[in-house]
Amino acid sequence: MGNLKSKHLEYRPQVKLEWNELLKGKTMKVLMLLSALAVAHAQFNNGRILEPPVPAQCVQRIIHERYSDNKGYYFSWRDPAKRGVEEDWLSARNFCRQRCMDLVSLETSDENEWVKARIVQDKIKYIWTSGRLCDFKGCNRPDLLPNEINGWFWTAELQKLAPTTNRQQNDWSEGGGIGKPQPDNRELQQGGAAEHCVAILNNFYNDGVHWHDVACHHRKPFVCEENDALLKYVRYTNPNLRV
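Above: the chain sequence. Below: its structure as C-alpha cells.
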C-alpha cells in the first residue's frame, strides 16, 4: 500500500445542527412527524430526494460487522449484489437509508481507524462517508461561516465537524490532486463541480488513508451504519415487524 500514515486523533463532540435540537425531549410521535417532514423537504437542486426508510428492507438489511457499541455496518463491496457497483453520494445514502441505515459518520478516532482498517484490508481505493459541506438554506449562520472551514458536518447524525483549520480534530489529508491540504475544492478550481462531499481515499495520492473533499456526483463504494433515528421511526410505525 505504500507509505500509509495515520493521524492520532482525539475527537471532541462538536455542536449539533439546529434541526437535531428540535428532537430533544420530544415524544416518539413528534419524532416520527419531524422525520417525515424532513424527508418531504429533502429535495436537491436536481429534483432528486432523500429517501425514507423502507420497512421490508430494514428487516432484511445486511450486517457485515458490528462495532464495539454493537451498531451494525454494511460494506458495499462485500455484498455480492453490489460488488463492483459504485454509486454517487446521494444514491449511496439513499441505499443505506432505505435499510434503516445511513452513510457512515466518523464521530470518534476509534471508529475512524476501525473503518479505515477495513478499507486497507479489503484493498478498496475509496469510499463515501456521510460528510458534507453545509451548502443550502440556513448555512449562513455565523457559527458555520466561513462554510469551507466551519460548515462541514456528518449528515447522518447532523453532527458538526471541527473547523478544518484544527488539524488535530479531524483526519483531512495533507495532500491531494494539486498537492494542497484537504479540503481544497480542487475540481471547482479546475473548472469542474464543487467538492462538497467527504470520501476516504486509500493512499490515492500517496498521502495515506485520509478524508478528502470530492464532488458528490462521483461514484464510489460505500459504508452504511445502522441509524438509531430511522430504526426508531420504523419500529414505531410498524410495531409488528422485527426490525
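The CA atoms of residues 100 and 230 lie 5 Å apart.
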